[in-house]
Structure formats: structure tokens, C-alpha cells
Amino acid sequence: MARASDGDAGAGDHNHSRENRRHHDHAVTATQANRRRLQLVLGITLTAMVAQALGAWISGSLSLLADAGHMLTDSAGVAIALVAAHLATRPPTQAKTFGWQRAEVLAAMINAMVLCAVGVLVIREAFTRWGSEPEIQTTPMLVAAVVGAVANLVSLLLLTSARGESLNMRGAYLEVFGDLIGSVAVIVAGVVIMTTGWTRADAVASFAIGLLILPRALALLKDVAGVLLESTPRGIDLDTVRRHITDLPAVEDVHDLHAWTITSGVPVLSAHVVIDVGEASGTERAQLECDTLDALAECLEGHFDVAHCTFQLEPAGHLRHEGAVHA
After folding, report:
1. pTM value?
2. How many whole angstroms separate alpha carbon 142 and alpha carbon 131?
3. What is the overall mean pLDDT for the chain?
4. Which end of the chain lies in a sparser environment, N or C, as judged by fewer CB atoms within 10 Å?
5. What one-character-per-residue DSSP string does 54-119 give?
6. DSSP tag of 9
7. How far is 311 from 27, CA to CA, in rounded Å?
């Protein structure tokens, strides 16, 4: 008979302590851990966005309006991420055994889709503006653009150290970085218009802002799709995992090996592990299985930083009862 066991459990009090520690380590997602930073970034971005929107209305600059629109989507994205982070802290239930941790991934998906829409709209408006000669007041345009650049620089510094911790933190960082470049593009356009009178520089800057938005949005969507499709997490090579498992004492083979991500920073793994129980008695076999589970859990956490693992231990003859299996 197969024996289904959680690699985090094992036998003995030390295993329960390890389980409690791991649960504590993964109970708070990366976005939740950086909530204060995101709140500061949200306040700064909203303030700069209002300044740029007013500057665009006064100056007539499309590029400044595009940058303000980009900052508005960034603010919405950060707000969504904060709400999702709050939901992610809700405890698991019988209906949602992993809780709401994947809410952060859904928030990142919404953010990326909104960014795509804004990027397309800005590029379309830039082409429309190219054929006209709008009157642009460069002084309010430059003042608002400088305010936006300073605000984005401060936000960027706040997010730099946390940008690699989750999809939402990476998305927020990339958005602010894009905003900073967008603000610089508006400043350059304002200087060109002020010194040469070439108002099409505003359309060029708008087009550049649109081109900055789209690739980042598509890259974020790709990462979100990888999580939702339960692709193997980056940094985990299943062939290497399989070799590590089969190198353990008593392990003969491994099949149905799967690794996926619940949310950023929370990889999980499951596998059917074939063990050699030999002529072991009931008590000896139980101890062998417990020792194997301990070794499996320590191996996966130590070498691959995967703390939540589920293993099904099987004798060699059990495979024929399972039908088609994943290698």
C-alpha cells in the first residue's frame, strides 16, 4: 500500500518544531513584509500624479499627460498589491487550503493588463498628435516633470532592496523605474520645445513612454502566466532534484515529480518516492519511512529552498497500480 505523507511533518517533536518554524517563515508574503514601503510609494506617486495632471492641463503637453496616466496606473497597481497582500495573510480554510496567497499573483496580472492598455493608448495618441502643431507652455510642463522625476527617484530608492522578493514588488519597482525614465523624457522634450520650438518633441516623448510601458507589462504578464500555469519555479531543475532524492538511503526511484509556485517566494513540491523496505518488520518499516521523510524534507529545503513538500512513499511493486504517471 502507498503511504501518503507530508515532508514537513515526519516523526518526532523536532519535526513538529521545524513545521511550525516553516509555517511562520512563509505565513507573510513578500508584499506584506514590504507593506510600509508600498504605502509610502503610493502616497508619493499619487501626489506626483496630481501635480503632473495639473501641469499637463495647464501646459497642453501630451507626454506629461501620458506620464501622469502611467503614474495613475502605478498607483492603482500598488493599491491592488496592498489589498492582495492583506488578503494573503488570511489563514487557510477547508475551502482554500493555501489561503489567499495567490491573490498577489492575480493582482500582478491585473496590473500588467492595465499597463498594456495604457501603453497602447499612449502610443495611439502620440501618432495622432504627430500631425498637429499644439501650443505647449514649457514652463509648467518642465516644473511638473521635475516634480515627477524627483518623486519617482525617491520611490525607486524605497523599492530597490525589495525588488527581487515577489512579482508584485518587482512590478512596482519596474513601474516606478519606467515612470522615472518617462519623466526624464518629458523634461528633455520640454527643453527641446523651449529652445527650438519643435513641438513634435512632445509626441516623440509620448511615443517613447508608450514603448517603455509595453515591454515591462508583457514581461510581468509572462511571469504571472508561469505561476498560474504551475510551471516549474526558476532555480529548480527537476533532473537535479531527482538525482538528490534517489541518492538518499533506501530510495530506489522517484516519479510523479512536480514543482510549482503558490505565490512569489512560496515554491511547493510533490513526488512519489519508491523505497526499498526489504524484509523489514512493521516497526522497522515505520522507522525507515520516518527517517526517509526527514531526509527528503531536509534535502529539499537545504539544497533547493523548498520547505513545503509532500511525498508519497511506495514499495517497488506499487507503480503498476497507478496507471500513467508523470516521470
Report:
1. 0.69
2. 23
3. 80
4. N
5. HHHHHH--HHHHHHHHHHHHHHHHHHHHHHHHHHHTSPP-SS-TTTTTTHHHHHHHHHHHHHHHHH
6. T
7. 22
Taking the C-alpha atoms of residue 212 and residue 181, their distance in angstroms, rounded to an integer, is 8
Q: CATH assignment of 3-24+232-321, given 3.30.70.1350, 1.10.575.10, 3.40.50.460, 3.40.50.300?
A: 3.30.70.1350
Give the amino acid at 312: Q
* Amino acid (1-letter code) at residue 224: V
- CA dist., res. 120 & res. 269, Å (int): 39
Question: Per-residue pLDDT tens for 196-247?
Answer: 989 889 999 988 888 888 887 888 888 888 888 888 988 889 999 999 999 9
| CATH number given to 34-228 | 1.20.1510.10
Cβ–Cβ < 8 Å for 88, 99: yes
